[in-house]
Fold Aminopeptidase W07G4.4.
Amino acid sequence: MSQSIQYKLYENIFIETNIQSPDYDGVILIVYPEELNISLPRHIGSFVEGIRKLDKHIQKVATVWHCDYVSGGRIILAPTGNVTPYHDASIIKDAVKKGMLRALDAGVKKPLLVVQDIVNFPDGQLIGILGALEAFYIPLQMRERDDTKNFIRLGLYAEEKKTEDFERVIRNAIALERSRIMTRDIAGGDPERMSPANIVEYIKNSFAGITNITIKVIDDEKIIAQEYPLLAAVNRAANHVDRHKARMVELEYKPHDSSRVTETLMLVGKGVTYDTGGADIKISGKMAGMSRDKSGAAAVAGFLKACSILKPPHLKVVGVLCLCRNSVGSDSYVSDELLVSRSGKTVRVTNTDAEGRLAMADALFKLTEEAGNAMNPHLYTIATLTGHARACYGNYVAAMDNYSARATNHSARLQFSGGRMAEGIEVSTIRPEDLAVNVGKCKGDDLVQYDTEAKCRNHQLAAGFLIKVGGLEDKNIKYTHLDIAGAAGIPPEEPTAIPVLTLCHAHKVLL
């Protein structure tokens, strides 16, 4: 008999204990290398072994086969390929996503995914389900034009004796995917659909009726100029268009019982809705794709969404989205300007295309001041900040700790969590010269926005600038900078929603 437990995400999601249930029209099975000795459901073990002998190609690409022993009479075999000790959980996510996309291409509308428990990957079941859900993602602007779903129902197969633990995994997966949808929607929306004003509206709608999240929006031009002067300078050329005016969005998650809070997370996200480079304009086609420069703010919003659903009792979370647009025009801020930051330190502009650090600087300083009264605070900046991070680490996140966070090996913990959650993290070290290089060069200058003569360590010196302008240089407050420039997803790829999963795992947000 079939036993189903229903959840709702896009449509209906069920736990299914009968691999021959008539409620589905195709089964997706992940094919692991034989040497891993992964047990298969008893109905299909011999069938899959026969296919292995018939066609070794099933170890390379997802294939569709007729099979009388499964729902719908067809099975999609999705291979991981060779699995080595150097692989992380991404190998599972990628295999499941490819298998689910192949099933959709074959016309499957009611897929049943066999979610195996893999000793090598402790969170493999969770990551497999997330890979399947990722395959179903439809970009926001497509959904708004046509709300047709690409599947009717999703079954997740588990042996009957394991359904209780499996239910918890699914609850986590659904919460995380809702959070990643929010992140992808904001990051992937075009510069008009996700202008600062429209992001504010989207966030308000997304958190409507949720009582553990409070939202504060600052949209007054004079207040922003006074309290966030560096961001105001970046946005100056965009101020004549109302929907492009800067907005500061402060989100706060509080658990029901504040006495149980043991850690306060304070996150600042870069939300440049479009980056032309400003007066130092991007050329030779380098401007295309710059609507993704808001991926840091999108990730902060997504993490708060996860907290609102999963309700971690031990965390208080403050998230600040620095929403602006680096336009070009007669009122653009330009190199050689001397700006006065919220901290009172002067900053000499040297390259208007290094706007991200300015956009986040004053918000970071504000949170640094507030952290003094917070329970066990940890500050983050999350941004698509430097092409140098991408050049150094490819499509992985560069994680950098200040001395306080490094004392707890925090970035190493993020790297561990990233490996478990299929989000690659590389640890990069902030050294004394990365702070020193940001000291002003001209008389009276406290800081230089960017050392144009720097030949290397560009992503580390950006972190050094944030430490200095954020008032963190001499404070014993944990701070981690995440440069996601290489990992956030570049068109035509969909946004990755990195590092939402890593943060949820590292800070024990999951059920």
User: Anything to note?
Assistant: The chain has 16 helices and 18 strands. The longest helix spans residues 163-188.
